[in-house]
Every structure is written in structure tokens, then in C-alpha cells.
Amino acid sequence: MDIKKRLEYLRGEIRNECISYGEIAELQSLKEHIEDGDVELLQWAEEISCTYCNLDRPEKDNKLIDIGDGEYVCELCIKCEGLTVDN
Asked: Which residue in 12, 13, 15, 33 has the most C-beta neighbors within 10 A?
């Protein structure tokens, strides 16, 4: 199995909002193959959450952003809290 292709398939399932529980478990088993900065996959594989509101799996239009030191913030909190984030 080509792991990178499988991760991209699972990313597509996340984006299409049709990922199954089995696929989430598969993604969690593949988390060691996910790049450190790939927040989109990591939020599903490691259950990372927004530091401000604890949202762990935001909707597709409210993504988590890595702000460093193991902390993440969702785009909605950036707007509501008036935060600035350097990517």
C-alpha cells in the first residue's frame, strides 16, 4: 500500500465530510507517517483541538492553525478574539 496515496484519499474523505469511523481508526494508525505541519490530517489522527474553544474537528470552513508550542487555534477564534497568526 502506498501510504502517501492513502493519506491523500483519507484527506479527501475528510474534506467531503464522509470519513467513516473505520477510516478515522486507520488514519490514527498511520499518524506516524503524517508530516508535522499537516494540521488537517493531524487533527483527525491525534485529536488536537483549538486552544481557545477546545473545538477538535472544525467544519471545513473553520480550520485549525498551528500556532506553535503544541497549540492550535481555529479560524473562528482568530476572528472573534481578534488574534493575529503568522503562518
From this structure: 13
Q: How many residues does the chain have?
A: 87
Distance (Å, rounded) from C-alpha 85 to C-alpha 87?
Answer: 6
- Cα-Cα-Cα-Cα torsion 85, 19, 56, 69, nearest 10 degrees, comes to -50
Instruction: Retrieve residue 2's grid coordinates.
Output: 502506498
Residue 42: how many other CB atoms lie within 10 Å: 19
Distance CA 53, CA 50 (A): 6
Q: Kindly calculate the radius of gyration of the chain based on its CA atoms and give it in whole angstroms.
A: 13
* Run of H or E residues at 81: helix 75-81
pTM of the predicted protein model: 0.68
pLDDT digits over 23-82, tens only? 999 999 999 999 988 888 988 887 778 888 877 666 666 788 888 888 888 888 887 777
Contacts of 7 by beta carbon, 8 Å cutoff, 6+ apart: 27, 30, 33, 34, 41
